[in-house]
Amino acid sequence: MPVEMVGTPTNARCGTFLALPCYRVERNAIMSTILKWALIMLVVSLVAALFGFTGLSAASADIARILFYIFIIIFVVLLVLGLTVFRAARGP
Q1: Counted domains in the chain
Q2: 24: CB partners within 8 A, 6+ apart
């Protein structure tokens, strides 16, 4: 039973079950979007703190912190997968 994947393949091995590294573009786009929003919330927090809106500043800082932690978790998971599972699928 073939596995259906979304995205554009980037090499000739795509279409097989072990061809998951072919879809790096979508993973990178998701991670850069999360990091971008974390940085936007950090800037909003700093500007709000500069103008004395402490409640808004604290809320924005909390959102930025949560998004940054999500980014770090996704990064570490993909790093571990890239160093173990995907390397084994590619061969030595």
Answers
A1: 1
A2: 10
Owner of token pair 């079950």: 17
Each residue's pLDDT tens digit, 34-62: 889 889 999 999 999 999 998 999 999 99
Going by C-alpha positions, the residue among 71, 68, 80, 67 that lies closest to residue 28 is 71
Instruction: Please name the amino acid found at residue 75.
Output: F
DSSP string, 15-78: TBTT-GGGGHHHHHHHHHHHHHHHHHHHHHHHHHHHTT-HHHHHHHHHHHHHHHHHHHHHHHHH
Residue 70 forms part of a structural domain: yes
pLDDT at 33 over 50: yes
Asked if residue 4 is part of any domain, the answer here is no
What predicted TM-score, i.e. pTM, was given to this entire model? 0.60
